[in-house]
């Protein structure tokens, strides 16, 4: 182990010497064109300023260095956008110039970045994959067709919570919401549940998706020092390989099962049917690997994010009982925290939206939970239906109390950084039926 760290230090020192020499010759002219930012240290740049909650650290740095800030992160130079005006410029006015994405080393696992709708360059293949999602999940026609399915899955969630209430058992809100979103998506894609909606199951799949999101969002030395790529010093790519193999294996079993069915009624056509037909008729547009990676993207983006949003919303509502009472009638979810736009931006005040025209659909850049421009989340229309439906149903059918004697204002609010910001500790609450 000691040799391993000495090797890393040696490589970093070798890099630093080379970098210092080249920067003295070429770096000064380039640096003058960059936006302001903190003065970098040798070798590591400003990595030490990120901490374990980079989103919070960057917000604090932006108050010092401005809404467009440059950061030297090891060998990489990053630009951080922290205002609505700058975000609009990048995501809307200059969308074509900025729509390509850098590839985190974690997504080199299983060559995911070469097949993922989230990372492949905007082009024919990207448009094909986006069209599959938009036509079969996010279009008005498909959303209308899946309305009954959404109702069934939310009703199953209410049944599970009611069962827990009869024995005064606490409910893990995040896991319960995850099962609902998982089965909703799996029925849309595969026409079947992937977990029992009435039991405390689905833990393995939730942890698998959660681990993928955590590893993909975890600060990775290789992204800052590409010279370390062969070593994978934190083991992130190795773990991602295992996670990807496992979830792709699940999809392969479902695909093989479907291929063994000789015929299906036309009105039962789901996303898998559409993909299999396209893969057969136009294999150059949709290969089997593209199909499996598309499913991976859809489950990663459509399950963990939904359950996390519901969990955070319930946490905030429990900490603010007066708002919980108002939310029995109507609920909005607050995300944006720019104090120049939102008064008391760190406080949970959903009523702020009652007098605001700002929307979340990617046109108002003060609040962009789904991103913007051509890379905007294709699952946004579904999320805007399922999250309020799940949260509203939980509030309208039950009263909720904490599974501890702690006062709600002392509720743990620690965050866990990743692609999405998760609650560090699960929220356990006890439901009591209103009737």
TrEMBL record:
InterPro entries: Cyt_P450 (IPR001128), Cyt_P450_CS (IPR017972), Cyt_P450_E_grp-I (IPR002401), Cyt_P450_sf (IPR036396). Keywords: Heme, Iron, Metal-binding, Monooxygenase, Oxidoreductase. Gene3D superfamilies: Cytochrome P450. Its cofactor is heme. The keyword Cell membrane does not apply. Belongs to the cytochrome P450 family. This is Geraniol 8-hydroxylase. It comes from Mikania micrantha (bitter vine).
């Amino acid at each position: 182990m000691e040799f391993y760290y000495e090797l890393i230090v040696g490589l970093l020192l070798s890099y630093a010497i080379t970098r210092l020499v080249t920067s003295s010759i070429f770096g000064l002219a380039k640096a003058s064109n960059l936006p302001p930012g903190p003065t970098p240290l040798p070798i590591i740049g400003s990595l030490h300023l990120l901490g374990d909650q980079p989103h919070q650290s960057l917000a604090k740095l932006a108050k010092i260095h401005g809404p467009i800030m440059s950061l030297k992160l090891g060998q990489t130079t990053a630009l951080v956008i922290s205002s609505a005006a700058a975000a609009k410029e990048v995501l809307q006015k200059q969308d074509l110039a900025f729509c390509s994405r850098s590839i985190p080393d974690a997504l080199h696992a299983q060559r995911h970045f070469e097949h993922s709708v989230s990372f492949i360059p905007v082009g024919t293949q990207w448009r094909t994959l986006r069209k599959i999602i938009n036509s079969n999940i996010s279009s008005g026609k498909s959303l209308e067709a899946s309305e009954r399915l959404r109702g069934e899955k939310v009703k199953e969630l209410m049944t599970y919570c009611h069962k827990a209430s009869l024995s005064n058992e606490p409910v893990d809100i995040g896991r319960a919401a995850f099962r609902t979103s998982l089965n909703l998506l799996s029925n849309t894609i595969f026409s079947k549940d992937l977990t029992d909606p009435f039991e405390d199951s689905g833990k393995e799949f939730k942890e698998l998706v959660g681990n993928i999101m955590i590893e993909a969002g975890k600060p990775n030395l290789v992204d800052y020092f590409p010279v370390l790529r062969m070593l994978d010093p934190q083991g992130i790519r190795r773990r991602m390989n295992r996670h990807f193999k496992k979830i792709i294996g699940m999809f392969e079993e479902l695909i093989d099962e479907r291929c063994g069915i000789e015929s299906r009624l036309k009105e039962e056509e789901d996303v898998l049917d559409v993909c299999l037909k396209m893969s057969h008729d136009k294999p150059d547009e949709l290969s089997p690997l593209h199909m499996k990676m598309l499913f991976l993207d859809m489950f990663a983006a459509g399950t963990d994010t939904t359950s996390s949003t519901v969990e955070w919303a319930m946490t905030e509502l429990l900490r603010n009982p007066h708002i919980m009472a108002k939310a029995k009638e109507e609920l909005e979810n607050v995300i944006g925290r720019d104090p120049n736009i939102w008064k008391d931006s760190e406080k949970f005040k959903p009523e702020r939206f009652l007098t605001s025209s700002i929307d979340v659909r990617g046109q108002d850049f003060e609040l962009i939970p789904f991103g913007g421009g051509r890379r905007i989340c294709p699952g946004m229309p579904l999320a805007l239906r399922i999250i309020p439906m799940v949260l509203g149903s939980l509030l309208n059918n039950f009263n909720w109390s904490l599974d501890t004697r702690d006062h709600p204002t002392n509720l743990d609010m620690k965050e866990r950084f990743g692609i999405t910001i998760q609650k560090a500790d699960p929220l356990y609450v006890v439901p009591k039926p209103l009737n």
